Structure formats: C-alpha cells, structure tokens
Amino acid sequence: DAKTTQPTSMDCAEGRAANLPCNHSTISGNEYVYWYRQIHSQGPQYIIHGLKNNETNEMASLIITEDRKSSTLILPHATLRDTAVYYCIVRPPVAGGGADGLTFGKGTHLIIQP
Amino acid sequence: DAGVIQSPRHEVTEMGQEVTLRCKPISGHDYLFWYRQTMMRGLELLIYFNNNVPIDDSGMPEDRFSAKMPNASFSTLKIQPSEPRDSAVYFCASSPDPYEQYFGPGTRLTVT
Asked: What is the DSSP code string of A19-84?
C-alpha cells in the first residue's frame, strides 16, 4: 500500500471549514484514498473514499489532485464533536472485489476550538 | 441497527489467565476484522474473516492468540496465557463491501 503523510495536529475554529491534507505521492493508479476518524475512546469511523474524482457525502468532501499525489478532506462547518484523529489510508482494491484489513498510520489530531 | 457489539467493554486480568473477547457483527456483513490499538504501535490488524472463514491471520502476534467465527453472528478472540504486553484496546469491525468498515466500541484489556 502507498505510504501517506499527514500533519501531526491541526486546529480549526468552530463553524469554519476544516481542511485536512494528505500526501500520497507513491499512489498507484488503482489505489483508493480512504478517510477514517477516531473520536476519543471510540472505534474508528468511516468518512469517505475516492479514486480520481472529488467526492462528497453528508459528512465531508474529498478533493483529490489531478495527479492523485495528494488529497484534502474538508469538513465544511466544523463542530466541537469533530475533534478527533483523522486517518488517510491508501489501498488497492482486493482481487475478486473483496475486502481486506486497513493499515492505519498516525493520522492528524484535529482540534476544533470554540 | 445496533452496530457492532463487543463484550466485555473492560477486562482486567492477571498474567497467565485466559481472556476471551467477543464480537457480534452487523447482520448481513460478510467480513469481520479484529484490530488492536496501543500507544506504541497504533491500530494494527490482527485477523479477518470472510463468510466465517479466516482469510489473513498474519497480524496475530503469536500462538497465544486465536480467533474463531463459528457462525455469521459471533466471533471470539482468545488470549491464552495473557501477558502484560497484551494490554490494549481490541476492536472488532464488520464490513458489507470493500469500502466501509464499521467498528465496535472496543474492549479495553488490562493484564497485570
């Protein structure tokens, strides 16, 4: 799996957009970008994933650069409950369309300030 | 849906004792994963199952660890004998597809 690089920590004011960057310069053509987060004392939570196109769901938007070497997760209106560790994960699809385990790095500790 | 259910939520045991962690995945999910989280090593995949069959157990630390999935609604992770270095939070996750994994609340294990 491609290696990812994320800042160790970030602050964001409540109500503002939180933009979390992730570098994955060695990503392969068939590897997806996933984002999960882990709120303190809870299990990780899936946020979003994408391959080439930008993606949006009810939680966040994922912007992937054209060369796919980096991406940004955007939380449009951050709240205090968004304080968590955010993990960017790059992994290829599993042969046969199945699933396999996730490899978590250290992630970014996002702190939403009131 | 109740989500992934894990029990117990907290377990304190003495070194040498057997520990059994339990997981009930979300109904209809074909994949089940066991992860371990420590401050030193972060989140690590231990083993995962597809349709109750173990697919990859390369993350299991050693023979003291074993996992079973006797049916689609239940899995166990057993440590025998337990050691202090096994202290961690153990997460179970289930997945219906290759993309989203749904994690349980975890079991915090302390081995003294």
From this structure: EEEEE-TT--TT-EEEEEEE-TTS--EEEEEESSS-EE-SS-EEEE-TTSSEEEEEETT--GGG-E
Task: Residue A55: list chain B partners with CB under 8 A.
Answer: none
Q: Which residue of A has its CA nearest to B57?
A: A101
Distance from the Cα of B14 to chain A's closest Cα (Å) equals 23
User: For the segment B46-88, what is each residue's pLDDT rounded down to a tens digit?
Assistant: 999 999 999 999 999 889 999 999 999 999 999 999 999 999 9
Whether residues A102 and B101 touch (CB distance < 8 A) is answered with yes
- Say whether A101 and B106 touch across the interface (CB within 8 A): no
